[in-house]
Write a structure and sequence with these properties.
Largest sheet: 2 strands, antiparallel
Oligomer: single chain
Strand content: under 5%
Structural class: mainly alpha
Helix content: over 70%
Length: about 400
């Protein structure tokens, strides 16, 4: 049994490496070195997510249920460090380096979309990045979540023009309004206060804080290749590869645009009429829709995340596809996926594109996204308890 599991892990690792080599060479040959580099950056992000088990969904769930703040504290640190790097880039304070902010309107669309997304991430069992890396991990239920994530994003792109007509104050940039340094200091202050709050609430309920930097008996090189990584290592990996994304692509890491693109391409190929979908008539979406999926930055990075996570899971001996899924989990995966996709399109992204990308580049919509999504997550956790999918709060179960 152990021998067969080891052989399976070797087979998956070999397949992953060959796939990475083949896809990177194809992208370089058919498109450009830039596309190949972005795919490899996606692979690095997938490895980082899997080895560190860096999930936004789980971090929020553990904090809401048990006040275990380790995951949330790691996310806040990631936001702070990424802001330190991106604010001066967006503010053109570093000669020779420029990048675009992840901007979105501040209004009803983001408020509703983020709330729906927050519900979806708890019902579906993952956010944008979490869905991708757990698919690479081999979780069958997350394939279902991903499929309906794509459906939801496609529906959202069809309806987005209506949502954008609802009350909003437009796009608001802290960097444009305050300057990059004052805007950065304000953001860091708010994040520091938030860190202190979640730490206080954790210490108030639990006897000891769960550390985000842990040591193991393995050497650093063994941990780097085979895992496990601490959350601090995960923060470092996500920060480095997000910075590389900014330097190569000219914008922060994003995920969910690709899902709407894939769904719309499929619907159009099946004969569906998309002529009234105004979103796909605008500049970049129109170009992406009329080009190969492999020409789209977000798509190739998403593919990289999945394959990178698959490789990391095999190296860690964790790749183990599940053979079955119960009825309630199937239902929450479907509903959660639809809410994730629809909400992400309305809110200009997910935890990565809207929250991490928005906050770290000075877009006010990122902050609105954070609070609305967290409120949605709280509601969804209680819905799961009511459905019997999750256990009641207070029984010590995670």
């Amino acid at each position: 049994m152990i021998h067969s599991e080891r052989k399976a892990a070797v087979d998956v690792a070999t397949f992953s490496v060959l796939a990475i080599l083949a896809i990177s060479l194809l992208l370089q040959h058919e498109f450009a070195l830039k596309q190949s580099l972005l795919f490899l950056i996606g692979v690095g992000l997938g490895i980082s997510l899997l080895h560190a088990l860096f999930g936004f969904t789980g971090g929020w769930r553990f904090f809401i249920r048990d006040r275990n703040s380790a995951g949330v504290r790691a996310q806040i640190i990631l936001l702070m460090l990424t802001s330190l790097v991106f604010f001066p880039i967006i503010g053109k304070a570093i000669p020779g380096i420029e990048g675009a902010a992840a901007m979105g309107q501040v209004g009803v669309s983001v408020l509703v979309g983020a709330f729906l997304f927050g519900m979806g991430m708890q019902l579906g069992g993952g956010c944008g990045s979490g869905t991708l890396f757990t698919v690479g991990w081999g979780h069958v239920d997350m394939l279902i979540t991903l499929a309906f994530f794509i459906v939801g994003a496609t529906l959202g792109s069809a309806h987005l023009h209506w949502w954008l007509q609802l009350p909003n104050i437009g796009k608001v940039s802290l960097i444009a309004e305050l300057g990059w340094l004052p805007g950065l200091l304000l953001s860091l202050l708010v994040l520091a206060l938030l860190y202190g709050l979640v730490r206080y609430l954790d210490m108030k309920k639990n006897p000891a804080l769960k550390p985000i930097a842990v040591t193991t008996s393995r050497s650093s090189m063994q941990r780097l290749v085979f895992g496990p990584w601490s959350l601090m290592w995960g923060i470092a990996g996500l920060l480095i590869f997000n910075l590389l994304t900014m330097l190569v692509a000219g914008h922060p890491w994003s995920i969910t645009f690709a899902f709407g693109l894939w769904g719309t391409k499929i619907w159009s190929a099946l004969g569906g009429d998309i002529t009234s979908w105004q979103y796909w008539a605008s500049a970049y979406p129109a170009r992406a829709l009329n080009s190969s999926v492999l020409a789209d930055t977000t798509s190739i990075m998403d593919f990289g995340v999945i394959i990178g996570a698959m490789l990391a899971a095999a190296l860690a001996g964790k790749f183990a596809p599940e053979a079955s899924i119960n009825g309630k989990r199937l239902l929450t995966a479907i509903i959660g996926g639809l809410l994730l996709g629809y909400g992400a399109r309305l809110a200009f992204g997910c935890n990565i594109g809207a929250m991490l990308g928005g906050i770290s580049t000075g877009s006010l919509h990122g902050w609105l996204w954070l609070w609305a999504a967290f409120a949605g997550a709280i509601l969804a956790i209680y819905i799961k308890i009511w459905m019997g999918v999750d256990k009641p709060i207070g029984d010590g179960s995670q």
